[in-house]
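Q: How would the structure tokens look for this protein?
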Amino acid sequence: MSIFMARPRQRSPQRQTASRTLRHLRFASLICVLLAPLVSQTAWAQVRVDAPRAGVSEVTLNDAQKAELIAPMHSFLGRVFSLPAKFETDPELRASVQKLVDAELPRMQGLLASWLDQERQQAPAANVNRLSWRLRARVANEMAQWRLDLAGPRHEELLQQALMHPRACDWPKHTDSLLAVLVHQWRGVPAVNRAELLAAEATSLQRWGLPRGEMPRRPVPSADDIAAGAIDNLLQRQLQPAVPMPPVLAWRLLGDRDPVAERKGRQTRCVLQQWATALSLGQPGDARAETASLALRYGHSPMADLWWGDSHPGVSASDGYPDLARSLEVEGTVQVAYSLDAKGQLQQALVERRDIRVPGTPGRRAVALETLLDAASLARVADMTHAKPRPEEVQQGRATRRIEFVWQLK
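A: Here is the predicted structure in token form.
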């Protein structure tokens, strides 16, 4: 573990004495940290990543500018909650869904003005660019909460049935409509149960913009982690998964194609979520089975990178801060657990915990944005040079370590 300390300025004798005492305490703490691995099988470290905020200038908004600022999100909601004319579904289901949208969308769009006022009250000096991104954060978070905050156990049961349907991942092509994707998935529920599902969806959508209970924590491991572990066992250990890998995944991830690029595809991610859920449910007594439905919902919930990841796909070359996270002012800590083999080679890494802060999501956990620092944290672990584990660290051929990344914008 590296500890970075700034060079002290000249101080009075009293301050110098206090400083020496503090250095002694720090030295003692350092000794404790260095000795900890001798009595623990898990090593810890912390890395800070400080970066400047997006450079913007402050302005004063008049009514016309406020309307101009709201307009993109107003239009965005209209597109996301529309059913394209070319989208094929049965007339009865289309009519029921359209009735739901007509009842709720005007209210949802009307909230944008009050959300903008709230942001200006909380941050009077915020400029147009930051206010725009904070509105995006609020909208993205509301959409994710809508998909996670269900109306009850029956809603969860019907939704899992829809998401696990064999054709649930054959999404409509060339559309920005989240609603079209959802309606396509809802068709996986028998027609006799669709009215019940739509009633539950309406109840959940009516909470848009209202205070909600605490969102359920992301399961660890996630569905992505479970699938990655199964692929790792298949490739590295020749262990066949309990549930065979779907052919489309084998073609996309195990062939000559770029697996990193393929995993970003929406259909691939959808099939990966289904397979991971099947792996969890197929292990009786496995703790993962109890959270399989929640992991599936998180995997299908619309996160911020779904909407704006293509326009902000990279990381800063100077400080490694993800571009989208910087624009949305995402800060906080990400704890990664990773395993090494006896030679010190990285075998697997996953995010265990996050503590994320995002302006624009007051009083709410930023469920739609809290993963925006995950990939950069995992990439840093992959780029690190890992010390060879001591023999006592290795259990069943692997040693587990943890590291915490502190991401902060200055």
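The chain has a mean pLDDT of 83.

The chain has 16 helices and four strands.

Upvote if useful.
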